[in-house]
Amino acid sequence: MPYSMLRTFLSVRTILSPRRVAYAPALAWGACLLCLASGCADRKPPPAPLTPEESAAADSIVALLERIDETALRSAFRSVSTRAHTKRIRTGQFEEDGTLLASREQEVRHDAEGTRTIRSESSGTFDFGYLRRFVSADADLHASGLAAFDLPEYIIPEDPPYTVARNRETWRYEFAPDSVLFARPVRVVRITARPGFEASRSIRRVRLYLERASDRLVGIYIERVHAALWFREESALFLIADRLPSGTWVPGNTRFETHIELLLRPAQRFRSATEYYDFGEMDPGVES
After folding, report:
1. How do the domains of the chain map onto residue ranges?
2. Which segments of the chain does DSSP mark as H helices, in order?
């Protein structure tokens, strides 16, 4: 399940055993010596300043980001624990060349009777390495510390670095071609860490999907890089909100992909997608 994967992947303490962590100081000294020997300590030239066109685009889009409405996306995922729904979860592990190693598909129903798996199919054998496992039950999600309603808070912090005016020179801002999400036209803002600033930014690339009629945020795609001496993760997460006929915002679907490099282990690649549907009220006598 992508939500528990996030918490597990981003906590190095749950990935590496104490015995392996004990070697970190020696490895750090070795890495420093190799770095100095290879000349990587040389200072790089400063990044190029913004061109007039880039500066104008940054001013325009940063001003837009200051006024977009994030309520729909945040409320959609916050409501998932209080609204009856079904979710279909597809998870796969892949070779570096894209060959599928293992897969699992589940349908989980959440309603007034509780949460239960109504269908589960799998093939192959997952190899999680230092990772503990994937979990899918809501109780396990809460135990892992990151459930569906937490996703917007993880993806959209209160002050994202790309919305802060003083950081405008570290990002490239541009409008991508318009798109359609759940039959609604949206305009797309694309934000990318500029060359020379990538190493200082865990967020490398963002796409914001704004409902054209209102500039309401209804979708977000974000790429992150987390690196340490013994660990590197490149992840991408895509969230979309949908609106019911009643006007209530609910989760549409999520997609998560991660590429993990661990010390003394082959690289690992996982993908997971969750689709939400069949919404209703927790009281079975009330229709949504």
Report:
1. 2-18+50-281
2. 2-10, 12-15, 18-21, 24-38, 52-65, 71-78, 138-144, 151-155
